[in-house]
Amino acid sequence: MTTLDPATPATEGPNQAQNRFVVACVALFAGAIAMGVSPVFVRFAAVDPFVSAFWRVTMALPLLWIWARIENSGRGRGRRAAPLMRRFSPLVVLAGVLFAGDLVFWHLSIHHTTIANATLLATLSPVWVVLGSRFLIRETVARGTVAGLALCIAGAALLVGAGFQVHPGRLVGDLYGVVTSLFFGSYVLVVRVLRKSMGAGEMMFLSSVVTAAVLLVVALAGGGPMWPPTLAGVVSLVSIAVFSHVGGQGLTAFALGHLPAAFSSLVIFVEALAAAITGYFVFGEDMTPLQMAGAATLILGIWVARPRRAAAAG
């Protein structure tokens, strides 16, 4: 049976469950696209990447708080939920720390190795999610998901692998890329578990409070300016918060309440694909025939990995 959002009526019928399943799939891909276009805003923010990461999460908090309040008010009759700020739990804190770690090590990887190396190594996260789904959260991983993951990894290698380089001077940066994948993969698993008892808005708001606190320490340690020098930079930061965090991460968190963690983790490949397409149209970055073949392979892999019916999401 489909895993329902905590706000979903338990008496939901098969057609309603199927519709909710389709909505979750749409939300997953929409969230990936929203995260994939974030490099556009990061380039115009004119601040240190760690500072932009901090504002990305912090500026999103008011919208996430409104989402959480609306979500809680719509739960209907029954036992009244605990006040929002009292709903912190070890898993919520862990989710916030893991996402902060994902952002920090991603930027460290970019600074210490090539973008191609950092991107390709970060796409290893679904491998950890597949293993964690099977051995940690006891969630069945379909053979189609494994086959689709293999195709996605091959597609990612074609899409960004042309610039992949093995160099002794970049090994630390490459290691940061692998660590990034571990943080993001762990984050997906924890969110999947949390979403079985929490709404997406509530989970996103509470975990983002933790993420913002961690990123503030990191940003201040960098010693750079904490505010962009231009209005365009401020608008870029607001756009990152709205599109990448509330839209991208929020929709992904919503989807994780209804879809298997292993399939949902493939969102990182859609994000890479969206980033490549955005780079082509916005910055005039070329896409070679090999990269186009990689994009097609990514799409095929996601199609092969898809849950075949709503029941597969439970």
UniProtKB/TrEMBL annotation:
Keywords: Membrane, Transmembrane, Transmembrane helix. Coiled coil: none annotated. It comes from the Bacteria. Signal peptide: none annotated. It comes from Pseudoxanthobacter soli DSM 19599. PANTHER family: ACYL-MALONYL CONDENSING ENZYME-RELATED, EAMA DOMAIN-CONTAINING PROTEIN. The chain crosses the membrane at residues 21-41, 53-70, 91-109, 115-137, 144-164, 176-194, 206-227, 233-256, 263-283, 289-305. This is Permease of the drug/metabolite transporter (DMT) superfamily. Pfam families: EamA (PF00892).
